[in-house]
Design brief:
The chain is 9% helix and 40% strand. By secondary structure, the chain is mainly beta.
Length: 274
């Protein structure tokens, strides 16, 4: 913010000045220089507190996409980078490797990430799930119904919502699936499945009337559906497995897992990661 003093010299003989107000972190400094003259002021405490509050609100509104409730980028940790507190923890031997951007987690068939239950993850209306995945073994050699993201419902067999793989009669993991529970498991699936060592961006959306599955931004399956998603009633969220008691673990790399409490459009899905 620039300023200019067009007044005449004051009683102390100060000349008109031109300068810049510089806002850095929590300090507001007024610097005015002409010749060898320099002025500086500190913001009063009461003004600073209001300034800090407004600035933090602006930062949050500008940096978080609408509806994003959790995002795990796996840059050497399992933190939810949205600041919503949905931090995960590793179970067994989770390691880090090159991801679609920066780092990703690598899972060996026993390891996974678990996230405690929270209100922000207990989504019952619209939802979007997004994840990047890469198999590091032949998918046919992995567990059947290998899960990418799964939100457990305590006391129920089906998950509240999930991204996973489906199976043919002869081979596991022959397609991608997006599933939600609404008094029964409802899902949409792709015609094609994953290949070894290829990255895929998988996304599932539900807007209250339709489920859609996307692979790499392309719609590959949809189905009409209505009604709320079953409340997860305290169940944890798992990345890389169904509930641990089920042998449905993913073997490979997972990156940039995101959860929204609204249904993203296809254009928004395509923009993620670009």
């Amino acid at each position: 913010m620039s300023f200019k003093n067009n007044l005449c010299n004051d009683a102390d003989g100060l000349a008109p000045v031109v300068g810049t107000i510089l806002m850095v972190g929590i300090v507001v400094v007024l610097a005015a220089v002409i010749g060898t003259q320099a002025l500086s002021v500190d913001t009063p405490d009461d003004h600073y507190e209001r300034f800090k509050e407004i600035t933090e609100q602006d930062i949050n509104s500008e940096t978080l996409p609408d509806g994003l409730v959790a995002r795990w980028s796996f840059e050497g940790n399992y933190e939810d980078v949205t600041g919503n507190g949905n931090d995960g923890s590793a179970v067994d031997d989770v390691s880090f490797t090159d991801g679609i951007s920066g780092q990703a987690i690598q899972l060996d068939g026993d390891s996974y990430v678990e996230v405690p239950s929270s209100e922000s993850l207990n989504i019952t209306d619209e939802i979007t799930l997004v994840a990047y995945v890469k198999w590091t073994i032949d998918p046919a050699d992995g567990d059947k119904w290998a899960n990418i993201v799964c939100k457990d419902v305590i006391g129920e067999w089906n998950a509240a919502y999930r991204l996973q793989h489906g199976n043919s009669l002869l081979s596991p993991n022959t397609d991608f699936e997006f599933a939600i529970d609404r008094g029964g498991n409802k899902y949409v699936q792709s015609d094609d499945g994953p290949a070894i060592n290829d990255w895929y961006k998988i996304a599932g959306t539900y807007n209250g009337s339709e489920m859609i599955l996307y692979i790499n931004g392309n719609m590959v399956g949809s189905d009409e559906l209505s009604g709320p998603i079953t409340a997860s009633n305290g169940g944890k969220l798992y990345i890389g497995t169904d509930t641990p008691s089920k042998a449905r673990k993913f073997i490979g790399c997972i990156d940039e897992v995101q959860i929204y409490n609204r249904a993203l459009s296809q254009a928004e899905i395509r923009s993620i990661g670009n």
